[in-house]
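Hey, can you fold this?
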Amino acid sequence: MGHPAGLSTLFFTEMWERFSYYGMRAILILYMTVSIEDGGMDLDDKVAAAIYGLYTMGVFLLALPGGWLADRYFGLRKAVWYGGILIAAGHFSMAISFDGSFYIGLVLIVMGTGLLKPNISSIVGGLYGANEPARRDAGFSVFYMGINIGAFIAPLVVGWLGESIDWHYGFGAAGVGMVIGLVQYRLTEWRLGDVGKVPEKSIEGDDSAMRSRIRTGIITGIVLVGTLAWLWVIGLIEIDPVTLANVSAYAIVGAFIIYFFYLFIFQKLDTDEKKKIAALIVLFIFSALFWSGFEQAGSSLNLFADRYTDRDIFGFTVPASWLQAINPLFIILLAPVIGALWINLGRKNLNPHIPVKFGFGLISLGLGFAVIAVASVYVAENATVLPTWLIFTYLFHTTGELCVSPIGLSAVTKLAPKRFVGQLMGVWFMSTAFGNLIAGLIAGAFDEQVIANDPSLLSRIFLNIVWISVSAGLLLLAFYKPLTKLMKDVR
C-alpha cells in the first residue's frame, strides 16, 4: 500500500494488544456489577463505574512516565516489549480467582499499557519523513485500522467466554491475545530498521545502576499497590473509589499544568517550539472533552445495552458485550476511506487543518448522543429498544473518532520537538486519561435504582453531553485560523 514495511509489524502488535484491552474492557463493568451468584462482584453501579474510570484513566495516565522512560532510557522498542509482558501478566492475574488478583491484574495492565501505548505510536510516526504529512496521516489511519480489527474480534471472543461460560475465561483469553502479539513483534522487529532502537536522550551515569533502580522501582510499585488492593479486599483498609476518582481528576489537571510549566520554563524551547506546544495544549483540552463522551461506550452505553436493549434474535440472546464490536467494525470499514480522503485532499492542497478535523469530530460525537437520547425517551416509557439505536450512535461516534484519534496521534509527532516526542505522546494519552476518568464519573449517574425512580434522567444526561460536544466543536471551527498560525500551517 506504499507504506514502510515496519508498519505491518506495528499493525499486528497493536492489533493483538488492543484485542487484549478491548476484550477485557467489554466485560469489565458487567463483571463488576453482576451478582455473586452469577460469578460477578455485585458492586454498586456508582462504585463499579468509578473503578472503571480509575482503571481506564490509569491505562492512559501512565503513558507519560512510559514515554519519559522510553525517551531517556529504554528506547521506544524495548518499552513496547516490556509493556506487552506486563499486560499479559495482568490479564492472567485477572483470570485467577482469588482475593486481590483482580485488582493486581488491573495494576499490571495499567503499567504495561503505559509503556507500550505511547511508544508504539511514536515508532509509527518515526517511519515517515517530515516532508510527507499526508502520507503519515494515512499511515496512522492504516495503523488505526489494525487497532480496530483487534477491538472488533475481542468482544466476540472474550465477551462470549465471559458472559456465557465464565468471566475468568474471558480475562484469560485477553492474556493469550497479548502473548500472540508479543511473539509476532519479536519475530518481525527487524522490519523497523533503526527507528526507536535507542533513546532520543540517554540518561547520564552508570547504565547498569540505573537499570537496577528502575527495575527495583517497578517491582516495589507492583508489590505496594498489590498489597493495598489485597488489604482493601479483606477489609483492613477503606478506599472509596468515587472519592479517589474525584481526587484523581484534580491531580491530573495539576500534573498537566506543572508539566507544561516545566517544559516552557526549564527546557530552553525556541519560539517556534513554544507556539507548536501551545497549539498542542489546546488540542489536548478538546481531546479530553471528546474522550469524556466517547468512552461512555464501555460504561454507560454498555450498561444501556445490557439493561435497556432488546437483544433477542430468534431465541438467542446476544451478549451485551458483542455490541462493543460495532464501533471497531465501522472503523475497519471507514478508516481506509477516511485515510484516502486525507491523501486526495492533500494532493489538491485542500486537506483540512487539524483543528477543523477535531471540530467535526466533536460535532459528530454530539450527534451520536442525540440518537441515544431519543432512545432513552422510549426507555422512560418502560420499553426496551432495538440495538439499531446503539448502532447508529456508534456510527456517529466512529466518524468522530476518525477525525480526532489518529489525527491527534499524528499531530503530536508533527508538532512535538523530537527530543520530547515520547513525553508529549504521553501527555496526549494523559488527556485521554482525564476524559476516561470523567466518563466513569458520568457513568456513575446511570445507577439502575435511581433511573427506576426518575426514568427521564437517562435522556437528560445524554442531552447534556450533546450540548457540550457540539458547542466545543463549533468553537474549534470558529477559531481554527489562530490555531493554525501557532502550528505554522501544519495540517
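Oh, and this one too while you're at it.
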Amino acid sequence: MRILLDTNIFIPLEDSSIGMNGAIAELNRLTVSKHQLLIHPGTAIDLFRDKNEDRKQKILSRLHKYSQLESPPIFLEGEEEPLFGCPKKENDSIDNLILLAVHKNCVHWLITQDEGIHRKAKRIGAQERVLTVDQAITVLATSESQTLKLYPSVQDVPCYTLELKNPFFDSLREAYNGFDDWYIEKCSKTGRRAWICTSNNDIHAICIYNIEKNPIVTTENKGLPGLVLKLCTFKVLKRGYKIGELLLKQAFNYATDNDIDNIYVTVEPNKHGMLEDLFYDFGFYLYGIECKGRDNVFVKNFPKNFPVNNLLPLEYSIKFFPKLKISNNSVYLVPIKPQYHDILFPEKSRQNDLFRDEISSAGNTIKKAYLCNSKSNSIKAGDVLFFYRTEDEKAITSYGIVDQFYIENDPEKIFQWVSKRTVYSFAEIQKMRGKQTKIILFRLIGHLQKNIYFNKLKSMDIVSGPIQSITKINKQKTINIINEANLSNCILSN
C-alpha cells in the first residue's frame, strides 16, 4: 500500500534526538520493506521552519530515504475553501495540500497525529483513510498476521474493586488535583460503578458513571431534565482498538435499557481534541461550561418521543440514537453468513450461546463494515439495513444505517476504506480480487428482541423465496417488519 507520512510522524522516525516511543518503533517495523512510505513535498517546507538548525539539517539530509509524492495535486481556483476552509497560517496550507493528496486518491492512507487534519478528513468523507499511529499499527498488524483483530469486552465493576495505585490512574492524578480523594470519597465509598476494558490484568480504558436527576450542569444554571447518565471519568489508554467507541456503545445501551433522558460528559478544553471528536461523531453536542467554569459540557439526548425536524436520516440517527427516520431513504434486507454474523454482532450471538468466550469477541462496536458481491448499486448514506442471518437461523436479527457506500475491486483499495472498522482479514479481502465488491460502512442501531424467521417473512409476503442477495423492500413491507419486531419505539416511518 502507498502510505503518506505527515511531518509529525516523519520527525520521530528520523530524528535520533527525539525518543522513539514503542508505537513509532512498531509502526516502522510493520511498514519497512512492506509498504511504500511517501512524504509530501510540503514536508520539507514544514521542516525548514524548525528553529533548531542542527536538527533541521540532519532530518532534511535524510529525506532522500523516502520517496516523494510525485506531482502532488494543487488546488484549483476556489477549490480549497469549500473543502477545508481558509488556511489561517502557513502550516494550515501545507496540511490542506497533504490531505488533498488523499482526497485525490494519490495514496491509500495518510498517517498523522494532527487532530486538525483528522477533523478535516471527516469533513470531506475521508476519515476512514486517515489514521493515527495506533490505528495504523492495529490494522497493519492484523494484515501481517492474516487474523482478525479482536476487541476487548467491557466489564461493569464497583469502583472500590480497582486498585488506585495502578499506573493507569497516574495521568488522571497529574491532570486533576485531589483525584485520589475524589475517587475514594465520591466513587469507592459511595459504591459508584465503572465500565472497564482489561487484558492480562492491565486496564486499557475506564468510564466511571453515575445516575443523576434533573442536574444543573453549566455556569449559566442550565439543567438537564429527567434521569441523566453522567460519564464522570472517560479515559482510554490503549488506542487503535476502538475502545472509546466500545465504551460509548455500553453507555448508549445502558441509557436505552434504563429510560435515561440524557447523557453528559465534561472535557477540559484544548486538551482532548480526539476525544471531543469521538463525542461529536456519536451525537453529542456542546452544551456549555460546567459549573466550576473549567470544562466543556457535552450532551447527548435520548428523547422519549420522535423529534420532528429536517435532519437527514443519517444525521437524525446519529443525534437521536437509537431512533431512526424512514422518509426518502431506502430499506434493504441484507443476507449475512453465520460466521460473519458472529463476528459483526457477537453480542447477539452470545444471547444464544451461554458458553461463548466473551473476552475474545470481535466487532463489539457501533461503526462496522460489510462486504459482498451483490448486484445492488444504489445504496446510499442514510439507507436502513435489516440483516438476515442465512443458513442456520434464517431470520432477521439486527438493523443499522448506512454511513458510506463504495464499489471497488482492488483489495488494497477495499482495505483502505474498511481498515478502521473491518472484521475481515486482508487475506479474506484478497479472495475477492477481480470481483466488483460492494463496501457498506454502517452503524449498528440494535438487535431485534424477537427474530423474524423466514417462514414468517414469507407468510407476511415480505419475501417470496430464499434471500440470497441484498434486496430492496418497499415502505409497506418495512412497516410490516417494524410492527412484527415491535420496533415502533425506535423507528419513525413517515
